Amino acid sequence: MIDRYQTPEMKALWSEARKYQTWAEVEILAMEAWENLGQVPAGTAQRLWAALSDKPIDEAFAARVDEIEAETRHDIVAFTRALTEWTGDIEVARWLHLGLTSTDVVDTAQNIVLAEAVGLIEEELKLVQDALKSLALKYKRTPAVGRTHGVHAEPTSFGLRFLNFYSALLRDAERLSKAKTSISVAMISGSVGNYAHVEPKVEAYIAEKLSFQIEPVSTQVVPRDRHAELMSALAILGSDLERVAVELRHLQRTEVLETQEPFSYKQTGSSSMPHKKNPVSLENISGLARLLRSNLQAELENVVLWHERDISHSSVERIILPDSTTLAHYMLRRLKRVLGGLIVYEENIARNLGLTRGLVYSQHVLGLLIESGMNRTAAYTVVQRNALRSWEQGLEFRELLEADPECAVKGEALAKAFDPAYFLRHTDEIYARFGFEEHTVGTTSPPPSTIRS
């Protein structure tokens, strides 16, 4: 991943030094298991632990692996030779990689890193959920126009939008948790997965130490449907984050301007137009979501491999696994900053609700006419006729209805149809589904020119 979209935590997690450290941990756990079976002299694994404690694997070690791999053209062989040099313990080297094949180490170690990466993503996801929850509660009772097909439809709760996003991210959390469980498997089964040269007890020992499950049936690789499940969870998460971003981008358009992403002091919106404040963070999230979805396609291609193993998946995963987990972490962190500093223009929300001069209440008017005794076709004709005239001539919808002799509801009864509170009357019930009871919800304060959420 390029530095621009790195996060410090993911950069450290996916570093070459961390990769080799994790490989070493798997190798040492295998030694411990062999010791328990009496196949390796007692204390061998502890000597390697101690050596690495005195001289931890770092970037210099990674560089040495690269040097050896340039000759061997094999990363695990280069790693084991570099590890022997690094520790200087020839006796320990005798028992290194005993009964194992390369992918036993690589896949199990990669799953360790993937599980940790998902853990980092889950932490950041919880913070975004909290930000959405806060906005949902704050604007629960703020009437706003709802839009279908991009066109004004009916009043709704401004906070309900954020609750909708919050609900989606709860599902994302469930998918990530399941995917983390699915990827948290150890596979130490040998060259074609039949334990010919390694005891199943070695695999069971390593899995227990890692708090992993064992891969019940493997070949020489962990089946890639597990990785595809994880990539699917990340791709869906990316799409849900983009959904938030696209909504807020639309609401930031000049003609709408109900929200605005934070614009920091000395920030520049355009090299040529000094007035510009652009939704660049939100647009960034939309762009990166495309990468997550495209990377899922690449991982789906990795599910099908030749026979017990080929390495067509390896080159792909060296890119897409660190990139996708890093992008998800970065996107969540960037959206968290946007939501934490989101500017909400309540006066514009109110203005937009009234922009169509009452047309958004047409369905409520229709219902009242039907309740008054008119048949549906006649009532619909009256409402639509006056609605279209309001559109075309820029007249107040309610005034047109009052003047229409065929409109069966007038005066105070008609005025009730134009109350936005009617459309928010079940909002409490929706919020209660998430455990947000009435006493936890504050009402919106009177709208100043700008409210920072």
Outline the structure in words.
This protein is mainly alpha-helical. The chain folds into three domains: 3-95, Fumarase C, Chain B, domain 1 (Orthogonal Bundle); 102-266 and 273-351, Fumarase C, Chain A, domain 2 (Up-down Bundle), CATH 1.20.200; 357-452, Ribonucleotide Reductase Protein R1, domain 1, CATH 1.10.40. 62% of the residues lie in helices and 5% in strands. The chain has 18 helices and seven strands. It has a three-stranded antiparallel beta sheet with strand order 5-6-7. Helix 2 runs antiparallel to helix 3 (44-54), helix 2 (16-36) crosses helix 9 and helix 14 (362-371) runs antiparallel to helix 15. Mean pLDDT is 93; it is low at 439-453.
Residues in β-strands, percent: 5-15%
Sheet with most strands? 3 strands, antiparallel
Instruction: Extract low-pLDDT stretches.
Output: 439-453
Approximate helicity band: 55-70%
Residue-averaged pLDDT? 93
Discrete helix count: 18
Shape: elongated
What's the count of strands?
7
Classified in CATH, the superfamily of the largest domain is Fumarase/aspartase (Central domain)
Written as H for each helix and E for each strand, in order along the chain, the element string is: HHHHHHHEEHEHEHEHHEHHHHHHE
> Which structural category fits the helices and strands?
mainly alpha
CATH topology of the largest domain: Fumarase C, Chain A, domain 2
